[in-house]
TrEMBL record:
Domain AMP-dependent synthetase/ligase span(s) in chain numbering: 12-345
Region feature Disordered, mapped onto this chain: 115-134
One Pfam family matching this protein: AMP-binding
A GO term for molecular function: medium-chain fatty acid-CoA ligase activity
Matching Gene3D superfamilies: 3.30.300.30, N-terminal domain of ligase-like
UniProt-listed NCBIfam families: PRK07787.1
SUPFAM superfamilies assigned to the protein according to its UniProt record, in alphabetical order: Acetyl-CoA synthetase-like (SSF56801)
The protein, known as: Acyl-CoA synthetase
Protein family according to the UniProt entry: Belongs to the ATP-dependent AMP-binding enzyme family.
InterPro entries given in the database record: AMP-bd_C, AMP-bd_C_sf, AMP-binding_CS, AMP-dep_synth/lig_dom, ANL_N_sf
Length: 482
C-alpha cells in the first residue's frame, strides 16, 4: 500500500509536525528521528511503547509504523497485573520509552530502547508494508475479563483517517490541539497520526486545561479534540473567561468523542461561543464509524451519519434488522468496512464471537436511527439497555434529561431487577448542592415531562462523584445497588 504518512516519506519539509509544550519537531526532523527508531526495530513482530503524553511516544510509534512493525501502546497508569497480562499476551521484542522514564517491574526484564528525538536515521519508507499487516495492538479496557488485544491493520488506520478527512474537510492547513492520552485510538490514531497523515500539525497540551485550549486556539490552532469531561470543564469556565469564548468561537472544528457529550453542555458551549461541538462514534475494534460532518447539521445528542466506506445497520435481539429507522426503535449497531480490526490477538474464540457469519462486527452499542440517517447512541447493550414494563429504554437519553435539571451536576442511569417491571430505572445523582439535593419525585417528574412517563427513574441514589476511567467514561459496573 502507499505510505501511511506521505509527508514524512516523500521530501519532508520544515513545517512543524509535532509540538508538546515548548518542544517541537518539523517534518524533516521527525522523519530523521522516526528513521532512527525504525532502524532499531525493523524485522521485529511487535514493539511496546510506554505511551506517556510526550514527543518521545509520538516519535516512537511513528518510527515503528514506518518500519512496518506493529506497536503495542502501554497505558502508564495500568496496574502490574494488567501490564504483565499484556506483555505475556503480545510478547513484544522490546519497549520504547523516553530517556529517564522509570518503568514498572513487569517491564524491567524487557529490552529497552530510549527514543532520541534528536537522532538522525535513514529516511523511513513503509512502501513494502501490506495494507493487511498489523499496525497497532490496542488493548481493550477489560470490563468483562482480562484486556483483549485488538489487532488493527494498516488499512484500518488509512481508511478511518481518510474518511474523517472527507467528513471534516481536514487538510494539511489544519492545526489540531488536544490533551488526550496516547495509549488509545482517540489520542494516538486520531490525535497524532491523523494530523501527520494530512501533513498538518498537532499541538499536545500535556495536561488538559481551559487556559491551554484558549492559548492554542487563540494562537492559530484550528481544531480541538476532547472527551465530554473536557468539554464540561470548558462549559463551566466559559461564563467567566471571554478569551476562552473568543478562542472557541474562532475554531474551525470542535470534536467530542469516547463517550456521549451531554446535551446541556452542547447548549452551554453553543450559547457562549456560537459554535457547535460535533460528535463522532468509534471504538477500539472499529476505529471510526460515524460522524457529524463539517458541512452537515451539528445535531446535539447524535453521532452523525456513517463515514465513507462504513456500512452500518441496527439489529434486534434475534438478529433481524430493525424494521424502521424512525428515531425511536432501539437496535444494536453492527458495522462492516475497511476500518475494522482483524482479530483479538491469541483469542480466536472471542474473534469469532464478535462477528456475524457474513462479516458484520457486533459493537454491543445500542442506538436509534433517524429517517435521514443520523445515529443516536442510547447506551451499551450490557449496561445501558434497560427493559422496563415491556419497553426497551436507553440510559443515555434519561441521563441527558436529568442533566438539564438545575440541581444536578452529574448523572448516571442503570437498571436493577424489579418483580413487577422486570427492571426499574435507577438514577445516580451528584447534586449541585449536597445539602439540598433535588428530591426523587421532582427528578422523576422532570424526566417524565421531557421524555415519557415510562422513562422516569423509580429510584434515586445520591453520590459525591461518579466513578470514571481515564477517558472520563462512567464505570457503571462500579455502581452497586444497596
Amino acid at each position: 500500500m502507499s505510505s501511511l504518512f506521505p509527508s514524512l516519506t516523500h521530501d519532508p519539509g520544515d513545517q512543524v509536525a509535532l509540538r508538546f509544550g515548548d518542544r517541537s519537531l518539523s517534518y524533516a526532523r521527525l522523519a530523521a528521528a522516526a528513521g532512527a527508531v525504525g532502524e532499531r526495530v525493523r524485522g521485529r513482530p511487535r514493539v511496546a511503547v510506554w505511551a506517556t503524553p510526550s514527543l518521545e511516544t509520538a516519535v516512537g510509534v511513528v518510527g515503528v509504523l514506518l518500519a512496518g512493525v506493529a506497536a503495542v501502546p502501554l497505558n502508564p497508569k495500568s496496574g502490574a497485573a494488567e501490564l504483565a497480562h499484556i506483555l505475556r499476551d503480545s510478547a513484544p521484542a522490546l519497549v520504547l520509552a523516553a530517556p529517564g522514564d522509570e518503568l514498572p517491574e513487569p517491564l524491567r526484564d524487557l529490552p529497552r530502547l530510549d527514543v532520541d528525538v534528536d537522532a538522525a536515521g535513514p529516511r523511513p519508507d513503509d512502501g513494502d508494508a501490506g495494507d493487511g499487516d498489523p499496525a497497532l495492538v490496542v488493548y481493550t479496557s477489560g470490563t468483562t475479563g482480562p484486556p483483549k488485544g485488538a489487532v488493527i491493520p494498516r488499512r484500518a488506520i488509512a481508511a478511518t483517517l481518510d474518511a474523517l478527512a472527507d467528513a471534516w474537510q481536514w487538510t494539511g492547513a489544519d492545526v489540531l490541539v488536544h490533551g488526550l492520552p496516547l495509549f488509545h485510538v482517540h489520542g494516538l490514531v486520531l490525535g497524532v497520526l491523523g494530523p501527520l497523515r494530512r501533513g498538518g500539525s498537532v499541538r499536545h497540551l500535556g495536561r488538559f486545561t481551559a487556559e491551554g485550549v484558549a492559548r492554542e486556539l487563540g494562537g492559530g490552532a484550528t481544531m480541538l479534540f476532547g472527551v465530554p469531561t473536557m468539554y464540561h470543564r470548558l462549559a463551566e469556565a466559559l461564563p467567566g473567561d471571554p478569551e476562552l469564548a473568543k478562542a472557541l468561537a474562532g475554531a474551525r472544528l470542535l470534536v467530542s468523542g469516547s463517550a456521549a457529550l451531554p446535551v446541556h453542555d452542547h447548549e452551554r458551549i453553543a450559547a457562549a461561543t456560537g459554535r457547535r461541538v460535533i460528535e463522532r462514534y468509534g471504538m477500539t475494534e472499529t476505529l471510526m464509524n460515524t460522524s457529524v460532518r463539517a458541512d452537515g447539521e451539528p445535531r446535539a445528542g447524535t453521532v452523525g451519519v456513517p463515514l465513507p466506506g462504513v456500512e452500518l445497520r441496527l439489529v434486534e435481539e434475534d438478529g433481524s434488522l430493525v424494521a424502521a429507522y424512525d428515531g425511536e426503535t432501539v437496535g444494536e449497531i453492527q458495522v462492516r468496512g475497511p476500518n475494522l480490526f482483524t482479530e483479538y490477538l491469541n483469542r480466536p474464540d472471542a474473534t469469532a464471537a464478535a462477528f456475524t457469519a457474513d462479516g458484520w462486527f457486533r459493537t454491543g452499542d445500542m442506538a436509534v436511527r433517524e429517517p435521514d440517517g443520523y445515529v443516536r447512541i442510547v447506551g451499551r447493550k450490557a449496561t445501558d439497555l434497560i427493559k422496563s414494563g415491556g419497553f426497551k429504554i436507553g440510559a443515555g437519553e434519561i441521563e441527558n434529561a436529568l442533566l438539564e435539571h438545575l440541581g444536578v451536576r452529574e448523572a448516571a442511569v442503570t437498571g436493577e431487577p424489579d418483580a413487577d417491571l422486570g427492571e426499574r430505572i435507577v438514577a445516580w445523582i451528584v447534586p449541585v448542592d449536597p445539602q439540598a439535593p433535588p428530591g426523587a419525585e421532582e427528578l422523576a417528574d422532570h424526566v417524565a415531562a421531557r421524555l415519557a412517563p415510562h422513562k422516569r427513574p423509580r429510584t434515586v441514589r445520591y453520590l459525591d462523584a461518579l466513578p470514571r476511567n481515564d477517558m472520563g467514561k462512567i464505570m457503571k459496573r462500579a455502581l452497586t445497588h444497596g
